[in-house]
Amino acid sequence: MLTPRTWLLLAWIVVGASVLVAHVNVVWQVLSTKRPKDGGRRWLALVPPMALFYAAQDRRWGSLVVWVGALALYVVLRLAEW
Q: What CA–CA distance (Å, rounded) separates 81 from 37?
């Protein structure tokens, strides 16, 4: 039988992995843009806040919402520990 803390740990793992996958997806979309508007600095998208900036600049709202939603859920789960 799993305790509530074990369920919380499993939720952290699943949501943390989804944050990682969402970030990789956003970076892939940003780097695969055919006409970069900023010259070639799109590799800065590897840094999470910059990935959000470039995704918003490219109007990739779906990926942006998934990334932010997964991160928000992760933060909520971390706060649930207290």
A: 43
Question: DSSP states of 43-66 as a string?
Answer: GGGGSHHHHHHHHHHTT-HHHHHH
The alpha carbons of the chain give a radius of gyration, in whole angstroms, of 15
Is residue 48 classed exposed, middle or buried when 0-12, 13-18 and 19+ CB atoms within 10 A define those classes? middle
Q: Can you give the residue ranges of every domain in the chain?
A: 42-82
Q: Measured between alpha carbons, how far is residue 29 from residues 4, 12, 75, 79 in Å?
A: 37, 26, 25, 31
Answer for the pair 80, 8: CB distance below 8 angstroms, yes or no.
yes
Model pLDDT for residues 44-73, shown as the tens digit of each residue? 888 888 888 888 888 889 988 998 999 899
- Distance of alpha carbon 55 from alpha carbon 18, whole angstroms: 17
pTM: predicted TM-score of the whole model, two decimal places: 0.79
